[in-house]
Amino acid sequence: MIYCVEDDDSIRELMIYALNASGFSARGFSAAAPFRKALAEELPELILLDIMLPDEDGISILKSLKAAPATQDIPVIMATAKGNEYDKVIGLDLGADDYLAKPFGMMEMISRIKAVLRRVRPKENSPVLHTAGIRMDTEGHRVSVDGKEIELTLKEYELLKLFLQNPGRVFTRDALLSAVWDTDYEGETRTVDVHIGTLRTKLGRCGDRIRTVRGVGYRMEADA
């Protein structure tokens, strides 16, 4: 989920449309107050934050985000007025991950978002990934369920690895297609459904941990 904090309705709607069309899930906010309320309900994967807002400026919001343990690691891309070097410098000094100078193109926005997400993607500290009943040895390329080793195809393995690295995160079908099949082509999302189905079958009783999020995509149930 990506949050877009932008008070211009037409720009915000265009941003959300472009993000959805590129395989992301997005929510838009016209001011700081509804944005902060949404943060209390769900933390996004990335925040697009305009500096000029009606109730609180973006720099102030950025400071509070980076000061709070729950939100300090969420990447933030600032939207600044063209040529305003001061805002860019202050934002980057306070922990913003990138900036977009207005007016910016939607393709540039998507490219910047993908680049930031690649940079901040969590690194594996251990070669072993696991959740209840499922264990993956990434060095040995082995997967076991309840202690019994199972055979997965390469794509099934990569899907499971992505889910285990991101428990609780919802992936759209297009996002999975892009990450596992390395393509932005929006057509063959049925391929994802087929592979999810076979992966669930091979995981046996643990297959139910891969949940369908109706109208969106899939997520791996996080450990309680």
In brief:
The protein is an alpha/beta fold and 224 residues long. Helices cover 42% and strands 22% of the residues.
Can you characterise this structure?
With 224 residues, this protein is of the alpha/beta class. The chain has two domains: 119 residues, Response regulator (Rossmann fold, 3-Layer(aba) Sandwich), CATH 3.40.50.2300; 93 residues, Orthogonal Bundle (Arc Repressor Mutant, subunit A), CATH 1.10.10.10. The chain is 42% helix and 22% strand. The chain contains eight helices and twelve strands. The strands form three sheets. It has a five-stranded parallel sheet, with helices on both faces. A four-stranded antiparallel sheet has the order 6-7-8-9, covered by helices on one side. A three-stranded antiparallel sheet has the order 10-12-11. Helix 1 crosses helix 5, helix 6 packs across helix 7 and helix 7 packs across helix 8. The longest helix is centred in the middle third of the chain and has 15 residues. It is elongated and about 60 Å long. The chain starts with a strand and ends with a strand.
- What percentage of residues falls in helices of 4 or more residues? 40-55%
* Uncertain spans: none
Number of separate structural domains? 2
Oligomer: single chain
The helix/strand class is alpha/beta
Q: Report the mean per-residue pLDDT as an integer.
A: 88
Shape: elongated
CATH class categorisation of the largest domain = Alpha Beta
How do the strands line up in the largest sheet? 2-1-3-4-5
N- and C-termini, Cα separation: 21 Å
Percent range for β-strand residues: 15-25%
Count of alpha and pi helical runs: 8
The CATH topology of the largest domain corresponds to Rossmann fold
- Element string (H = helix, E = strand): EHEHEHEHEHEEEEHEHHEE
